[in-house]
């Protein structure tokens, strides 16, 4: 089904993506990855659990995309405080109640007890699943479907289904999304060129991602790889050529970001300073999420290889529990079979998207960090003058 080399490439690919942005790695993201690794180390081989890790990673990617591109923002937008807070015991209980209707979460305790897998008995939600569902519960009144894997670029970046909660009334300057708010903080004479370079770079990223989507489909299993050997070779070269074009677009955009950031002066108004501080906290959480999603992709890739030979036995073990919970177990087994062939294509595009998402996060952090530093320097100067 999956090749060992493919899985290692996914792991190595994320290793590069994790540091491409230059963002600091927080103790929270490192701790979350360590806990996830510890859980994976002791669990029994299971393709399903790795599929769920991939689904969780892709959903974290989607939540980052939602926060950056789709959530209206202003200095008093309450969602910024909520999404950067820790999940409460009460919220976790609400989440688990909703997840009882999910084929996996509604039956996993039953099947893990049956198979003597103790990891889920201790906690049905892994540390990184808690991070994800804290975000989903913050933004959605009805949860979207995250357990149908896809390599379709548009579907990989955006949640399918679900009902978003209305954004509370916002006072003051309101922006359509976080990127718009951040660009509003750079001087007017830098905006036009910056926005154009961002648009061109994002277009080039989309072209590469769609080609990676196609490659993932060609390599989704052994039979497909054998039948499409020549196409795979051609497509791999096409991706390299497209990435060279994208790299050039990135250099142009990077120069525009640097110019814009360098021209931010000390005259920036207090409202934007306050907004920049709140955005900085959100961006730190987004960077943590991207790193944690990468850990999930990597863990799933490496663990899947050890579980492949158990796939038929795994389905048989699940089928035993069908008599106890026929509706959910039938859906669970069907989902497992459907998702198995989509795991690698999903990783191919997901790992690439995370790396590029982190690149943008680093640019946003550079802007708000400078503004926060301007404010700190102002206060320090005022304190020095007051003490004289």
Give structural attributes.
single chain; 388 residues; mainly alpha; 2 domains; 17 helices
Summarize the structure.
This protein is an all-alpha fold and 388 residues long. 74% of the residues lie in helices and 1% in strands.
Please characterize this protein's 3D structure:
The protein has two domains: 4-182 and 268-387, no CATH class; 186-263. It is mainly α. The termini are far apart. The protein has 17 helices and two strands. It has helices at residues 4-20, 27-42, 47-69, 78-83, 89-99, 108-114, 119-122, 127-139, 153-157, 178-183, 188-218, 222-227, 229-262, 270-307, 311-320, 326-340, 343-387, and strands at 140-142, 163-164. 74% of the residues lie in helices and 1% in strands. The chain has a two-stranded antiparallel sheet with strand order 1-2.
What is the total number of structural domains? 2
Q: Tell me how many strands there are.
A: 2
Residues in β-strands, percent: under 5%
The helix/strand order is HHHHHHHHEHEHHHHHHHH
Work out the radius of gyration: 22 Å
Blueprint of the fold:
Blueprint: H1 4-20, H2 27-42, H3 47-69, H4 78-83, H5 89-99, H6 108-114, H7 119-122, H8 127-139, E1 140-142, H9 153-157, E2 163-164, H10 178-183, H11 188-218, H12 222-227, H13 229-262, H14 270-307, H15 311-320, H16 326-340, H17 343-387
Antiparallel strand pairs: 1-2
């Amino acid at each position: 089904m999956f090749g060992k080399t493919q899985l290692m490439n996914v792991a190595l690919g994320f290793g590069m993506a994790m540091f491409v942005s230059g963002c600091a790695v927080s103790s929270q993201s490192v701790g979350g990855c360590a806990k996830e690794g510890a859980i994976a180390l002791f669990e029994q081989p299971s393709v399903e659990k790795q599929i769920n890790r991939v689904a969780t990673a892709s959903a974290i990617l989607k939540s980052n995309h939602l926060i950056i591109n789709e959530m209206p923002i202003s200095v008093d937008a309450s969602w910024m405080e909520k999404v950067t807070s820790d999940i409460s015991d009460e919220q976790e209980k609400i989440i688990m109640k909703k997840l009882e209707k999910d084929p996996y979460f509604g039956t996993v305790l039953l099947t893990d007890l049956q198979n003597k897998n103790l990891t889920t008995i201790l906690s049905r939600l892994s540390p990184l699943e808690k991070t994800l569902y804290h975000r989903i519960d913050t933004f959605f009144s009805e949860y979207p479907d995250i357990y149908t894997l896809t390599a379709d670029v548009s579907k990989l970046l955006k949640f399918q289904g679900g009902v978003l909660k209305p954004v509370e009334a916002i006072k003051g300057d309101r922006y359509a999304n976080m990127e718009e708010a951040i660009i509003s903080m750079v001087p007017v004479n830098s905006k036009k060129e910056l926005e154009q370079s961002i648009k061109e770079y994002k277009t080039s990223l989309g072209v590469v991602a769609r080609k990676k989507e196609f490659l993932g489909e060609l390599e989704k299993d052994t039979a497909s790889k054998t039948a499409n050997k020549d196409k795979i070779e051609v497509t791999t070269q096409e991706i390299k050529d497209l990435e060279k074009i994208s790299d050039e677009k990135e250099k142009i955009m990077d120069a525009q970001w640097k110019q814009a950031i360098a021209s931010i002066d000390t005259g920036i108004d207090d409202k934007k300073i306050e907004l920049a501080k709140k955005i900085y906290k959100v961006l730190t959480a987004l960077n943590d999420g991207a790193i944690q999603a990468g850990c999930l992709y990597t863990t799933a890739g490496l663990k899947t290889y050890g579980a492949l030979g158990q796939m038929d036995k795994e389905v048989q073990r699940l089928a035993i529990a069908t008599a106890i919970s026929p509706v959910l177990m039938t859906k669970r087994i069907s989902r497992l079979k459907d998702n198995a062939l989509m795991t690698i294509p999903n990783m191919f595009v997901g790992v690439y998207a995370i790396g590029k998402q982190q690149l943008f996060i680093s640019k946003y952090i550079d802007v708000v960090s400078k503004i926060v530093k301007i404010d700190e320097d102002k206060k320090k100067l005022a304190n020095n003058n007051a003490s004289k």
